[in-house]
Amino acid sequence: MLELKHICVDVDDGNKEILKDINLTIKDHEFVVITGPNGGGKSTLAKVISGLMPLSEGQIFLDGVDITNDSITQRANAGISFAFQQPVRFKGITVRDLLELSVGEKIDENRLCLYLHDVGLCPKDYIDRDVDGSLSGGEIKRIEIAMIMARKTKLTLFDEPEAGIDLWSFNNLIDVFGKLQKETKGSIVVISHQERILNIADRIIVLSEGKITAEGAKDEILPQLLGDQMKCGFCIGEGIDFNE
Amino acid sequence: MNDTTKDLLAIISDVFGEPDGAYNIREDSQCAGRKSTENIKIEGKKDKPGIDIFIKEGTKGEKVFIPACITHSNVDDLVYNDFYVGEGADVTIVAGCGVHTDGEESSQHNGIHRFFVGKNARVIYLEKHVGVGEGTGARIINPETYVEIEEGGYLEMETTQIKGVDSTVRKTGGVVKEGGKLIVKEKIMTHGSQHAETNFTVDLEGFDSGVDLISRSVARDTSTQVFRSVINGNTRCTGHSECDAIIMDKASVSAIPELTANHIDASLIHEAAIGKIAGEQLMKLMTLGLTEKEAEAKIIDGFLR
Predict the structure, then answer these.
(1) Domains of chain A (ranges, CATH numbers)
(2) Number of neighbours of residue B198 by Cβ within 10 angstroms
(3) Is A161 exposed, middle or buried (0-12, 13-18, 19+ CB in 10 A)?
(4) Is the pLDDT of residue A242 over 70?
(5) Which one has a higher pLDDT value, B69 or A72?
């Protein structure tokens, strides 16, 4: 279980507030989708949870343990995974290297292949390829998700996993979430604007201008979000286009 | 052959025991072992230190090992090695140099290699440089390579200098004739106050000749590196040079390209990128559970792979 207590993030020497007093609990085995307008603080929240960004105030607990001051590495080892919105490219590091680092040990060919199959990539074409500029945006995004499947942690954060992937892999992505949840029995938090992802959420959280403006079961929140696609009732200022 | 030489050989040429193929092992300016094969003859030079290596035309799949080792301080070694690769041959040449110093005086190895690659011959040339030992004396390696590639010939040169060489100035020059191709892949890591300098000068003389110079380097601590590449395209040809460097601590890296096209159909490109390790690369690996140090090491290992 992840608990966020009074999370605030300020930048520009405290002149700009990105997150304002966020209180949130993600239960075990819960599938939560965070949505909201661009610039509302969604990615910042994911980075704060995984340790990539410092918080200005507040506390974070994972299974009751205070991890507020833990490093990225400590949080990763405590069971947090984070799939970046824009996956990182390397020089000389292969898909195999990243999958092995994700698992934390050398793994046999069959297991490596399974992770790539999960994300719809042909293992023999990708396993020894460098994770560099030669991969398309969609390919690298799928590899990022394969790394998450290999890690199998109790809490997984996905920042806009659908961005840059095609229709075929979009359908696969939904299956991946199901498989991951089944295998880890953990929690999944997805940042997304996609109706099909919102549609499989146990709970939807709307984050706008750094605040939680709505939170509840999918059946309660989704109709209101979709009621007016250009400007949903929960968003302050700019609306969200759910057809993006 | 002494034990230090045996240890150095394992590092620079992955040779344990007797090499599989023709070989000449140089130890402290002396010959510590030599073997010719039916297709590859190795002969000592009469007028100066060094050897001539003659590879018969049509020789396929054979290897030649010519490592040089310096096992103590106060050695100043100079050697001239010439390779004559016959028409249509396809061989691998493993060179490399290890310098071990045990005292205050420096030791150096200056290897001057010339390659005459015959028509349609194909050569893979591997060269690894390393410096070891407890001594404070500087370990210096200054390789000079001259290449002449005949019609349709191909030479791929992979040079690696990863550890312990205090000073190196590398000169590589050559001429590529019709349809010939020269590929140079250089990997360098410097640390402490080391200095590494690379100078390439290649003349593309033949129609449809090509050269590809690729340098990957990591400069740590207060070390300095200079990469100079001069490509002259004198006919229809393609030339590409690339310097990609990671800079760390208080190191310094310069990349100085010089491309000259003397023909309307000469196509020449230079790319250079120098920068520190990207923060997002470190962060990604840390989200997989690596510490910052482990992530840094992984990124450098991959970069210099």
Answers:
(1) 2-88+155-227 (3.40.50.300)
(2) 25
(3) buried
(4) no
(5) A72
β-partners of residue B60 are B90
pLDDT of residue B130: 83
pLDDT attached to residue B164: 82
Q: Do B286 and A72 touch (CB under 8 A)?
A: yes
Strands ordered across the beta sheet of A65-66: A16-26, A2-11, A57-62, A65-66
Please give the full DSSP string across A107-146, using - where no structure is assigned.
Answer: --HHHHHHHHHHTT--HHHHTT-BSSTTS-HHHHHHHHHH
Cross-chain Cβ contact A76/B292 below 8 Å = no
**pTM here?**
0.87
pLDDT classification of A233: cutoffs 50, 70, 90: low
Residues of A with CB under 8 A from a CB of B: 50, 52, 71-73, 76-77, 80-82, 84, 87-88, 90-93, 97-98, 101-102, 104, 147, 151
**Structure confidence at residue A226 (pLDDT):** 80
Question: Looking at residue B74, what is its pLDDT?
Answer: 84
Q: How far apart are CA A191 and CA A162, in angstroms?
A: 9
Is A93–B302 a contact, with Cβ atoms under 8 angstroms apart? Answer: yes
The rounded distance, in Å, linking the Cα atoms of A105 and A82 is 19
Q: Tally A–B CB contacts below 8 A.
A: 56
**Which pLDDT does position A244 carry in this prediction?**
47
Nearest CA in chain B to A99: B288
Distance CA A151, CA B205 (A): 54
| Amino acid at residue number A83 | A
E strand or H helix that includes residue A235: none
N residues, chain B: 305
> Are the CB atoms for B120 and B181 separated by under 8 Å?
no
CA B153, CA B116: separation in Å to the nearest integer?
10
Give me the pLDDT at residue A229, please: 54
Determine the average pLDDT of the residues in A90-117: 93
Query: Could you say which residues of chain B have pLDDT below 50?
Result: none
Closest approach of chain A CAs to the CA of B275, in angstroms? 13
Give the per-residue pLDDT at A85: 94
Domain-wise residue ranges, chain B: 3-272
Shortest CB distance from A72 goes to which of B244, B287, B304? Answer: B287
Best of A43, A48, A70, A91 to mutate (most B CBs within 10 Å, chain B): A91
